[in-house]
Amino acid sequence: MTAPLAAPQDVPEQLAFDGHSLVFVVRVGDVAVGGQFMDGAQSLNIGPCTAAEAAAFVEWFQSLLPKGTRMRFNSEEGVESGDMSHYWIPVGAQRDAVAEELLGHLEEVVDE
């Protein structure tokens, strides 16, 4: 999930591994997205970021997964509102389609 580091001093302060989770920051083009991977739950949390930044990350991340792998998602707003539904990123979705899925989800779960 992170590029090999040339030297120990290249390790960003945000990068930490405790055996159960990995806190990371990756750059996808001009966008830096941070988050945490939790091995036991097989979950990846990113943010805070915009839908466009999240979509750039998702587009990149799914390219690392075996072809045809489905990605399920939720948001902090969804979880906090008690919505534990399964929201899915369409397999192979490009950045704009991913952003639409994320924004559609937020429209459903955020009270106005």
Description of the structure:
By secondary structure, the chain is α+β, with helices and mostly antiparallel strands. It has one domain. It contains 3 helices and 6 strands. The chain has a 4-stranded antiparallel β-sheet with strand order 1-2-3-4. Strands 5-6 form a two-stranded antiparallel sheet. Helix 1 packs across helix 3. The chain is globular. The chain starts with 15 loop residues before the first strand and ends with a helix. The N terminus is likely disordered.
Could you write a compact summary of the structure shown?
With 112 residues, this protein is α+β, with helices and mostly antiparallel strands. The chain is built from 3 helices and 6 strands, in the order ββββαβαβα. It has one domain (14-109).
Describe the SSE topology:
Layout lengths: L15 E2 L3 E8 L2 E8 L4 E4 L4 H12 L8 E3 L2 H5 L6 E3 L5 H15 L3
Antiparallel strand pairs: 1-2, 2-3, 3-4, 5-6
Judged by helices, strands and strand pairing, the structural class is: alpha+beta
H/I helix tally: 3
Helical amount = 25-40%
Task: Report the sheet with the most strands, covering strand number, pairing sense and barrel closure.
Answer: 4 strands, antiparallel
- The average pLDDT value, as a whole number, equals 79
State the shape.
Answer: globular
Give the radius of gyration.
Answer: 15 Å
Task: Give the neighbour order of strands across the main sheet.
Answer: 1-2-3-4
* Proportion of strand residues: 25-35%
Can you tell me the residue ranges where pLDDT is under 50 for at least 5 consecutive residues? 1-11, 13-19
What is the N-to-C succession of helices and strands? Answer: EEEEHEHEH
